[in-house]
Specification:
Structural class: alpha/beta
Largest sheet: 6 strands, mixed
Distance between the termini: 58 Å
Strand content: 15-25%
Helix content: 10-25%
Order of helices and strands: EEEEEEEEEEEHEEHEHEHEHH
Oligomer: single chain
Strand order of the largest sheet: 12-13-11-14-15-16
Number of strands: 16
Shape: rod-shaped
Number of helices: 6
Length: 383
């Protein structure tokens, strides 16, 4: 059975070439020396990528191997301008990353709905001979050809955008948790690799708040080296704000299993360890209170730990509280970093620049404080 989840496609794209300018001399009755009247060629069509939240896979592009934009029309007599080539917009799901297939170089990223990114620019139309007339050259007999098109074979790679990404071995209870907290209905069964493709669920919280949870196929030891399904889907975890590690309570060594998962993420992309993490001990309906207290003493202390049972609902409200708190902490962390970067740039960089200019004897420097800069910004906005 063919999967409906497609997160990788390769497409050859080509923009339109510019139309040729016209070399035409006007000859009409009563005006045999009308002069040059050749029109300009039209612009070739551009190719754009456009974020569309109605798509969540690249399935609609799976069999579209070639995408061509329209060429620009040639210029004509009587200074007629050639038609511009029609632009092409490729709708992709939010979270799509584009690479050059030949070099592997990063090209662009589409992250939000409605975002438009130019992928390839169409060739500019050539100028007709009317544009080259002058007092010393009143009958130019030449025109420009249109500029050539651009072409590239691109790889579109989807990385799911979600607030919380689930990380765990097969049958850790990830799909059961998503189905319990949201309206998503992933396949659930008692054999490994039940989840063959990622799925998203919206988790409702208090006061009409919500967050998105991503169910990622199970990871096994060696996934970062290509074993199992992990290598194909590990990249989806890169775009998650928070990682929820899930380890069954009946596992022989919970800490060892958590360390294996952590190591696989580190081997794949060390930057993943900078994300906030929460550890959920699942299937706690199989444990009694005494055993849970004993397990608490053996678990990692550098991250929040929650005991849950998705089947009975035990600990799910506490889990949502912890996830919401950690998501807000992550958001505040990013805002703090951005604010610090702005302050460092304004205070240190500008101060050092001003000092250098003063030492060089530049007396015409105007110094503005933050309030004056904001006033200038407001004036530009009003204009």
């Amino acid at each position: 059975m063919e999967s409906n989840f497609v997160d990788y496609v390769k497409i050859y794209c080509r923009s339109g070439k510019g139309g040729k300018g016209s070399m035409h001399l006007r000859h009409v009755k009563y005006n045999p020396n009308g002069g040059p009247d050749g029109g300009d060629g039209g612009r070739g069509g551009n190719i754009y990528l456009r974020g569309n939240h109605n798509y969540w896979t690249l399935l609609h592009l799976r069999y579209q191997r070639h995408i061509y934009a329209e060429h620009g029309g040639n210029g004509g007599k009587d200074k007629c301008h050639g038609t511009d080539g029609k632009d092409i917009y490729i709708d992709v799901p939010c979270g799509t990353v584009v690479y050059d297939a030949e070099t592997g170089k990063y090209v662009c990223d589409v992250t939000y709905d409605g975002q438009v990114v130019m992928l390839l620019k169409g060739g500019r139309g050539g100028l007709g001979n009317f544009q080259f007339r002058s007092a010393t050259n009143q009958a130019p007999r030449y025109a420009q050809p249109g500029e050539p098109m651009e072409e590239m074979t691109v790889i579109l790679e989807l990385k799911l955008l979600a607030d919380v990404g689930l990380v765990g071995f097969p049958n850790a209870g990830k799909s059961t948790l998503v189905s319990s907290l949201s309206n998503a209905r992933p396949k659930i069964a008692n054999y490994p690799f039940t989840t063959m493709e990622p799925s998203l669920g919206i988790v409702a919280y208090h006061d009409n708040k919500s967050f998105v949870m991503a169910d990622i196929p199970g990871i096994i030891e060696g996934a970062s080296e290509g074993k199992g399904l992990g290598l194909r889907f590990l990249r989806h975890i890169e775009r998650n704000s928070l990682l929820l590690f899930m380890v069954p309570g009946d596992t022989d060594d919970i800490k060892r299993e958590y360390d294996i998962l952590l190591n696989e993420l580190q081997q794949f992309n060390p930057e993943m360890l900078d994300k906030h993490r929460v550890l959920a001990i699942t299937k706690c309906d199989l444990l009694d209170e005494e055993l849970i207290e004993m397990l608490k003493e053996t678990l990692p202390t550098d991250l929040p730990v929650v005991f849950i049972s998705a089947v009975t609902g035990f600990g799910l409200n506490e889990l949502k509280d912890v996830l919401w708190r950690e998501l807000n902490a992550e958001s505040n962390k990013l805002q703090t970093i951005m604010a610090e970067d702005t302050l460092v740039h304004r205070d240190k960089d500008f101060a050092s620049f001003a000092q250098e200019m003063s030492e060089e004897g530049e007396d015409d420097i105007i110094y503005l404080d933050d309030d004056e800069i904001e006033d200038i910004d407001d004036e530009f906005v009003e204009q």
